Amino acid sequence: MITHLKSGIGCILCVLSVLVCLPVAADGDAGKYPPFQPLVDAAKPGTVLMPEPGIYSGPVVIDKPLTVDGQDRVTIDAGGKGSVIYLDTDSAAVRNLHLTNSGESHNDIDSGIQVRGNFNIIKDNTIDNCLFGIDLQQSENNILRRNRISSKPFDLGVRGDSIRLWYSFNNKVTDNVITGSRDMVVWYSKDNLIARNTASGGRYALHFMYSKANHVEDNNYTDNSVGIFLMYSDDVVVRNNTISRAVGATGMGIGSKESSGLVIEDNRLLNNATGIYLDVSPYQPDTTNRITNNLIAYNGIGIEFHNDWTGNVITDNRFHDNLTQVAVRGGGGATRNDWHGNTWDDYTGFDRDRDGTGDTPYESYAYADRLWMDVSLAQFFMGSPMLEVLDFLERLAPFSPPQLLLRDAAPRLPAAGDKIELTARQVTQ
């Protein structure tokens, strides 16, 4: 009997020793997946690596020109540590992969993919539960196309950025779908194309810092805190984008701070707290920002100036059904800018010769509604019956001359049958 007891205890100890020696899965089940790195190490430069379908563990370092094609049947799980893929080479391609479960370090920029090279192609990947999506540093002539990116389910301010360009030139960021990330940021970067992307549920859909000569075209940004913001960034073209429902205390469609040589044209700015915000822009002497042919509709404020500034040419835009067409902070006006040929839905003049241009200028004055422009706490009452009554009384019998905000010498009238057609989703919350 004692012999059997010793034998049983020995078996139990053996089982326990085996269990102790088994690998422990990090952050779930990632530890039990076969590692992906040996496949990369065994592949020859210039070849196509098409792994067997399944789930593999990361992180992975790609340091040679190699095409990795997951055929939409391969997942790489970083196990909650570091970046899923670190791409440290030129002329590689990463496509059709599911990349997930990066680490949580902002200092290390834990990402779905970190790129440190040139002429790489990153396309058709799904990147989720990764702090940052795709991070480029000192990388040129890369293509980021048709990736689906979302961050970790953290509070908005501590999520990572969906796509991050730092000191990176001539890259093409196109056709990506971004949900629930913090920002897309472009820092110290030049000559990049950012086109046909969609972003929702973030803070800044696109944020420039000290970056110039970039093109932003045909993007759709909705339900973010801010659509596009340009800080200290010159010669940027912002064309044919749709930006809607950027609401809240700091909500704006397109914002600019100390940026010069901007072209903002053919955009649709719909149902934002502020359509366009200008803070000391243009900043460089003898430069001009051109704001032309935009639809600015259903916003709290159509265009807001941080102060009485100059140098903007604002022509051929359509201002439709904004609560306030133009606002100027700090007690000044916007008369030092060039206003010409805009369509204003509150224009009260006529077009007797039917040439499409109003017979009299469009002029906007600040009466009692000036109060909320100058006293921030009074903004709570913007559009309230109280301020509307005060405004009506001051227009009826002003106690002092009102402030002229702007004068459009040749306002356009809508053509016969011209109407703004928008979907309910674009204009409603």
Helix content: 10-25%
Low-confidence segments, given as residue ranges, are 1-28
Number of contiguous helices: 5
Radius of gyration: 28 Å
Structural class: mainly beta
Cα distance spanning the termini: 78 Å
Please give the largest β-sheet.
24 strands, parallel
Mean pLDDT: 86
Q: Categorize the overall geometry.
A: elongated
Strand content: 35-45%
How many beta-strand runs? 38
Offer a concise description of the structure.
The protein is mostly beta strands. It is built from five helices and 38 strands.
Describe the protein's architecture and organization.
This protein is mainly beta. 11% of the residues lie in helices and 36% in strands. The protein is built from five helices and 38 strands. The strands form three sheets. The protein has a 24-stranded parallel beta sheet that branches. A twelve-stranded parallel beta sheet has the order 3-5-7-10-13-16-19-22-25-28-31-34. It is elongated and about 80 Å long. The model is unreliable at 1-28 (pLDDT under 50).
